[in-house]
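Technical note accompanying the year-one report. For the benefit of new consortium partners, we illustrate the data format agreed upon in the data management plan: each record pairs a sequence with a structure-token string. No post-processing was applied to the example shown here.
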Amino acid sequence: QVHLVESGGGTVQTGESLNLTCVASGSPTNVFAMGWFRQAPGKQREYVASVTLGAGADYAESVKGRFTISRDNVVDAIYLQMNSLKPEDTGIYYCKGSFRGIWSSGFWGQGAQVTVSS
């Protein structure tokens, strides 16, 4: 069973930056696809970014040019560098992993709160 643990959330002002980390543990690792989703209060969970083994990174249009996802396959971790944050980026950010694809069934972390004040 694989466990995902997020860290790095917090409260910042508009235009500032945050970095999120998600580390996978358990057996087996080398998770095929890992990514980030977020959920704002009163809204559905939405896709943010993902990175898949053997493929490049992918981003939602709303974060392109501002967010960067990266992966460390040695420690089975992903990172989300978030720059030029906006109030609409506020939400709980969830890490997801899947052995089949980011849109397939998988496993989730507990979430990390990101709050951007105006």
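Partners are asked to follow this layout when depositing records. The mean pLDDT is 94.
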